Amino acid sequence: xxxxxxxxxxxxxxxxxxxxxxxxxxxxxxxxxxxxxxxxxxxxxxxxxxxxxxxxxxxxxxxxxxxxxxxxxxxxxxxxxxxxxxxxxxxxxxxxxxxxxxxxxxxxxxxxxxxxxxxxxxxxxxxxxxxxxxxxxxxxxxxxxxxxxxxxxxxxxxxxxxxxxxxxxxxxxxxxxxxxxxxxxxxxxxxxxxxxxxxxxxxxxxxxxxxxxxxxxxxxxxxxxx
Length: 226
Hints:
The chain is mostly helical. The chain is 54% helix and 3% strand. The protein contains 11 helices and 2 strands. The longest helix is centred in the N-terminal third of the chain and has 21 residues, at 48-68. The chain is elongated, with a radius of gyration of 34 Å. The model is unreliable at 1-21 and 33-45 (pLDDT under 50).
């Protein structure tokens, strides 16, 4: 019984993917081994390897037809087969995997074939590396992708005191102040107790004084004395 993935791939390479008479003739001409031949009658019993080979055979055949036929004939072929608008992904497969045979890639999952072809620039090094592999398997492809994956550099988080309220507003929240001798907290508490001010008011005043000093509108007493 076919898996859901096999069934889904099978639908993609059904009547709209395989040119029944012409494709079989092309596959016969291009194939030397019986195991490579695509049997449309037994299509529902194909393994994933057979589906992959069928997709590649079709892609190469379609690219071959585009080269042989006039633009008008090629366009008519697409319309007659109901492939208009669907042909680009197969032509891309043919272009990307032109140095391989369908048998070479038989043990790659069909979805992986589409993924590599659709992201050719991203996986170019992976595809080139496959040329040096004697037995290309799904695991080999996964390994190559993993090896060439550029590790993401963690972005330094920019400290932010802003928080959002449920209604979309915002407020600032000062992170906890850790001090070895708790001097800052002790001083702030004394100011709150003696002056009857809130912590927010004192912090706001301190920030205003510091900003004035940074802008040159305020000088320290010792600096003024000099």
